[in-house]
Amino acid sequence: MKPTNPVFTGLPITIFETMSRLAIAHGAINLGQGFPDVDGPEDVRRMAADALMAGPNQYPPMLGLPELRQAVAASNKRFYGLDVDWQTEVMVTSGATEALADTLMALLEPGDEVILIEPLYDCYLPMVKRAGGIPVRLRVTPPDWRLNIRALEDAFTENTKAILINNPMNPAGKVFAVEELEAIARLCLEHGVYAICDEVYEHLLFDGREHLPLMAIEGMRERTVRIGSAGKTFSLTGWKVGYITAAPNLLEPIAKAHQFVTFTTPPNLQRAVAYGLGKDGNYFTGLRDDMQAKRDRICRGLSALGFGVLPCDGTYFATCDIAPLGIDGDDAEICRLMVEDAGVAAVPVSAFYVADAPTNYIRFCFCKQDAVIDAALERLGAWLANRAVAPVALAGEA
pTM for the complete prediction? Predict the structure, then answer.
């Protein structure tokens, strides 16, 4: 029998699925996979239900319902001052992951280099490879996650076609500084490179920070693909509704890829998201403030337990240094211990690197109910306390 495609053959199950399965098997609290444990706004969900019953439920336009594309364009103007033509510069996709796949297939040719910043979301690497691209990995490292501008400059070559950035960044909780974004923009312009911007956490920045799309920086309007997600903005990750904003010369080939991948997205969900994007500012600030409070809650608790909690400027995720705990083993081993013995699932940050990863950091997801966060902290506290007294008890028995 002839071989299957080597990019996907033998590819391991994602770390998120692995930890979620372990959490189920051990009755653990799952702070590994990044999804809220409550559904989003009732009025948005009600809009989807009503639209489903009212119909039509047939194929919507390939680029997306006009009302949602108009809402995306209006959001670009409302939040970032970007003037976007909804008819030629906006497309709806079945989630941000599909948007990434469409974009990479449309823009890359075999041999094109794509700069990826580690730690990276797990789908980036196989998608780039399957599209024929050559990944060029650039690293940011804890605890400060600062982008090395000299290393960034060295990553750009005559073969670079695109840079893919996630801002705010999963799993680091990093929000790229203005000077970092300006350096990326400068190099894209100097080398004629496209920027693919995964900005699904655009409304989840903390401590007064404001999101700056790379597209809004001078010169980047015509060479940036900006990807958003209703799943993250409305805590409805199962809906898989994403959207792309890009100049017409970029959106046109991306749309051609999209038409042969999913073609369309459920029309009732599109109508509901269009309604949601028009909600007043209190919704968006409330979402941010609620998530910031959850961040503070879990970070205070983890710090009190002895974890080395790193700064988190945005997203759903808090990264912790486990070295201060004094537990033998790397991040993957300790995550397995935690889920089996403490009943709490987290994710090893090394899973977000290709090779030579730091092995003393783990990621907790905090987009959970306060009671769930508190229960997880209580379990971790009991587990750590038991580990601390176990050697003493054994010595007494001897």
Answer: 0.95
